[in-house]
Structure formats: structure tokens, C-alpha cells
Amino acid sequence: MDERRARRPGGRSARVQAAVHEAVTGLVGERGYGNFTVGEVAARAGVADSSVYRRWGSLEALLTDVMLTRLNARSPMPDTGSIAGDLRAYAAAVAREITGPDGPALLQLLLALHSAGEQGIRARDNLLADRSQQLQSMLDRAQERGETTPPIDDVLDHVLAPLYIRVLFNAGPLTPTYVDNLVDRLL
Amino acid sequence: MDERRARRPGGRSARVQAAVHEAVTGLVGERGYGNFTVGEVAARAGVADSSVYRRWGSLEALLTDVMLTRLNARSPMPDTGSIAGDLRAYAAAVAREITGPDGPALLQLLLALHSAGEQGIRARDNLLADRSQQLQSMLDRAQERGETTPPIDDVLDHVLAPLYIRVLFNAGPLTPTYVDNLVDRLL
């Protein structure tokens, strides 16, 4: 297989990406993070190992690309016109996601990357930097509208952290009231 | 090996427990949660599989027993005479633990149990119930002294959750000032 000769690189590139992402999602579901290799992803996707390395660089970078694509599709940063509305909508989306069928998959990935050496740490930091930047843009928009906004660290500490830890500790359901209260308390 | 014939059941029992706990700690360090069996623990500890099942019932219950023993040894609930002192000391101990060599091992275990079916969920709930009870006793002592105390859920949401998530998200160091601020903000 020589992908450089593909006649429609954009189309082929998109197909490779879709096949590789789907292979990762399948392997994560069946075995969990940390229990499969780039070779297994490539075989399942029907592409060469070298294609995966060329495009993503490492398994860790590939895993975070898949996660980021999913997060951006399922929990995009809202733009409701007010910081309260934005944070409530964002917190509700996160709550829905982590109590859904995939559960706290982001935490699972972060923990796997946490113990995956330097490449894991770098991939983790890139993933979080990307989402943080989006969250920061949401806060910046509110400030430009003249609203008072909390620091981004406080959103992490007092809205996102409780949601994740509640699911992991099975410490009560994430009711809409509970989720809204986290935001109201912060604001 | 017939352990019921051991002449000093207490001594033998304690030795079995120590050997099994040590085997678990070793296997967790080498392979991570979810990547070894009761048979492998038993072989490493030099005991029969049946001894492990008889005493612990399941791998999940054994894993939580090891974790609970460690938590109780390394992060016992403090008794400083004031709720502020207790919560600060407790938060500092948790921060020290999760930034130490074993890292967020409790989160790793909870995530592994989260996806380990009914026995995993039961073991997880037992582990957390035990620690929650200890934390509640700490809060109750303060109330008996006439202090105003936060609900236990708020300690989880706004002190413990940020500590864990900050480590996992690599969102800044857990300085003593940061840790104390989480407590002060809650109180």
C-alpha cells in the first residue's frame, strides 16, 4: 500500500482517519486503554503501521486525537449569550457524557496517559490545552460582553472536578439541580 | 497446603494477609489494575487460590482491602481539635499521597472497579463507605464540639475532587496554599 500515490489524498486521508478512529474506539471498548498497540489499531483499520505513525506520531497522540474529536462533537463549548447559561449548558453536557454508555472515558484515558511516560504526558497536556483554550474562549466572550467571569481554574476545580469525582465515587446522581447548583455556587 | 490445620491461625492468618497484600501491591505496580488474576496473586504470595477466595471473596474485594489498608495507614483521619485543622491536615495528606510515587492509585482502582461488573461496583461502594464513615466521624466530632461543619458531600466536591482532578489534568501544583484555600473556601 503506497498512500502517497492515492489520487484523492483528501478523500483517502479522511477515510484513513475514520477507519483508524473507529478501530481505536472498538479496541478501547473491548480491552480498555493500555491494552493494545499501534500494530493492532492499524491491522483493524486496514492500514499500514507506518501510516498511523506518520500521521499521529504515537499511540498516545492518536488516543488523544480520538478523544478530542469525540469531546468536540459531543460536548462543544456552548454560546448561549450569558456566562451562567454557557456554564450550565457545558456542565450539563459533561454530566450527560460521563453518565452515558462510555462513562468516564476521559478520566480513563487521562489515567492511562498519566502512567505512559513522556509521550503520554505530552499527549495528555495537548488534549487538555486544547479543551482549556476552548473553555477560556467561552470565558473571554463573556468578559467582552461585560460579564464577571470566574477564573478557568475555578471552573475546573468546582464544576468539572465534582462531576467527575461524583461519578467515580458513586456519590449521588448528577441531577440537573445539582449540576446547576455547582455553577450558581461558582458564580 | 491445608491452612485450617495451621497451629497458630492468628499468626498464619496475618502472614497470609501480608503476603497476599504484598503480592497485590507488586502486581499493581508492574501491570496495573485489571491485568492480573487471583491465581497470579496466590502464586506470588505462595498460597492456594482457595485461601484468597475464602478470605476475600473476589479479586475486587481483595484490591479494595489492600487500598483501604494503605489509605488508613497513610492518610488516617486527623483529630486536631478543630474542623479547620482536621480538614487542612486531611487535604494535605491526600495531596501528599496523590502526588507521591504511587500517584492517583485510588482513582486508578476506582476506574478499574467501575468497569468490573457487579462485584467491582460492590467493592468500590464498600471501600468508599468505609472512608466516608471515617470522614463523617471527623465532622461529627466537630459538631459535638459546637463547630459549624460542611456537609460531607461538599468536602468531596470542593476539597477532594479538585485535588484529584488537578493531578489528573496536570492543572498546577498542589501547593500548601492552594490546599488550605480549598478548605478555607469551603468553611
Automatic annotation (TrEMBL), chains A, B:
PANTHER family, per database record: HTH-TYPE TRANSCRIPTIONAL REGULATOR RUTR, TETR-FAMILY TRANSCRIPTIONAL REGULATOR
Coiled coil: none
A matching Pfam family: TetR_C_11
Entry keywords, A to Z: DNA-binding, Transcription, Transcription regulation
InterPro entries: Homeodomain-like_sf (IPR009057), HTH-type_TetR-like_transc_reg (IPR050109), HTH_TetR (IPR001647), Tet_transcr_reg_TetR-rel_C_sf (IPR036271), TetR_C (IPR011075)
Domain HTH tetR-type: 14-74
DNA-binding region extent: 37-56
Name of the featured protein: AcrR family transcriptional regulator
